[in-house]
Write a structure and sequence with these properties.
Elements (H helix, E strand, L loop, with lengths): L14 E2 L3 E4 L6 H8 L2 H4 L10 H14 L5 E7 L4 E12 L4 E8 L9 H15 L5 E7 L3 H9 L3 E12 L2 E11 H6 L11
Parallel strand pairs: 5-6
Antiparallel strand pairs: 1-2, 2-3, 3-4, 4-5, 6-8, 7-8
Length: about 200
């Protein structure tokens, strides 16, 4: 391996960016999910309202397996260097007839925050949605206090569509939820490497 090249886990990932790849969840990932989703700092920008138990995650996982590839696609975010899970992401509310899907993400490992992994995850899942599922539009909701997330989505090419006023209640207050989206033509115009363009 030459200097600067990264070790890629085997098999070669299908969905990836420069430093991360996406894979389906396994039952062995649930302990990570429980730890992440019981951390108030991690869940501050999410819709999680109460602590989550291992038993609850076990039941959720059974439903997830049934929905995968139908109503949604859920993936674990892993670092290519070290093959370590750091978060999760999904395409939800799939509407393949009209070509729409929602996007969600959590970087659960706080030591990996502010390193650009969220942006890479968004790139990889948009490549999947537009490049494999033939979607026309991927949308997301970002809550008013999440300024960093809003900036990251704009940087990734997402455009504000509008706000649902007081649509989310958390920490004793109602918050606006801004809807942002990326269209297929906008994704095609982004000057970056797509998932399938990375060397094996």
């Amino acid at each position: 391996m030459t200097n600067g090249e990264r070790a890629v886990p085997h098999p070669t990932p299908i969905l990836r960016a420069e430093r991360i790849y996406l894979r389906p969840a396994e039952r062995s990932d649930l302990a990570h999910f429980v730890r992440w989703l019981n951390d108030a700092e991690v869940t501050r920008q999410l819709a999680v309202r109460s602590p989550i138990s291992q038993a609850m995650e076990d039941k959720w996982f059974e439903r997830l397996v049934e929905k995968q590839g139908g109503e949604q696609y859920h993936f674990v975010i892993c670092l290519i260097d070290g093959d370590r899970p750091i978060g999760a992401t999904d395409l939800r509310e799939l509407d393949l007839e009209n070509g729409n899907a929602g996007f969600g993400i959590v970087i659960g490992e706080k030591s990996e925050w502010n390193k650009g992994y969220g942006t890479e995850t968004l790139q990889a899942i948009c490549d999947f949605g537009f490049g494999q599922l033939r979607l026309e539009r991927i949308w997301l909701e970002v809550y008013a206090p999440n300024k960093a997330g809003h900036r990251a989505y704009q940087k990734a090419g997402f455009t504000e569509e509008g706000a649902f006023r007081h649509a989310h209640f958390a920490d004793g207050q109602h918050l606006d939820a801004t809807v942002m989206s990326l269209l297929r033509d906008e994704w095609l115009a982004l000057p970056r490497t797509k998932s399938w363009e990375y060397p094996f």
